[in-house]
Amino acid sequence: xxxxxxxxxxxxxxxxxxxxxxxxxxxxxxxxxxxxxxxxxxxxxxxxxxxxxxxxxxxxxxxxxxxxxxxxxxxxxxxxxxxxxxxxxxxxxxxxxxxxxxxxxxxxxxxxxxxxxxxxxxxxxxxxxxxxxxxxxxxxxxxxxxxxxxxxxxxxxxxxxxxxxxxxxxxxxxxxxxxxxxxxxxxxxxxxxxxxxxxxxxxxxxxxxxxxxxxxxxxxxxxxxxxxxxxxxxxxxxxxxxxxxxxxxxxxxxxxxxxxxxxxxxxxxxxxxxxxxxxxxxxxxxxx
Length: 288
Fold this sequence. Notes:
- With 288 residues, this protein is of the alpha/beta class.
- It folds into two domains: 5-76, Helicase, Ruva Protein, domain 3 (Orthogonal Bundle), CATH 1.10.8; 98-287, Rossmann fold, CATH 3.40.50.150.
- The chain has eleven helices and eleven strands.
- The strands form three sheets. A seven-stranded mixed sheet has the order 7-6-5-8-9-11-10, with helices on both faces.
- β10 (269-275) and β11 form a beta hairpin.
């Protein structure tokens, strides 16, 4: 029954539903509690702070039912970002749907390096496999006079990215449909960036229940070989880079050595990898 339920009563029910099964819950329990608050704040369209300051406030039955339905989906492993339709990235929120990969904090390293290498006021950048558009959006906000091309082979993903750009009022991004370099038609850029699929089809990481909700083609390259897409990007980028242009690739935590070798074999100079906040080699760059 959801009639006459208060904010506090719903939060309690939500915490009980998402409470970790182990006694030593620790951070997992805190994360579950945060999820509960975020979902109720989302359903009620109110700040989390108001939930804490008005725990006695009544909640309409329809809203309570929506909240409990979302809690059930979260308990089944569905990512929070798909339940709320939003994910914070860089300095803004992006809309996400199951058509796109949920942006990860690690990918902000790719943006940081792109901004470090692309310091000029005007330039051209390409974001290949843009997904939600998060990388292209961040670059467009930080480099408003740059022309940015964002490509994706998925029409639904491009629709999400276009909507995100419109919501943020960003008009310097050109969205093109197609796989990797196909839509570029000989265009050249100062920077090419990409966060391609790099998880092998037999990687145990794919057993994570949350990944079952994300688009498989954004996780695993066609054919299932982890480096397949990274290899295509490394070998084809030089033809689309201006002299002294840079290629920046995100990759798996254990793939840095292999990606460096691919870039060197493709003729890139100043090849180097950078570590994320967890200390893992997360992206590799090279200069034409």
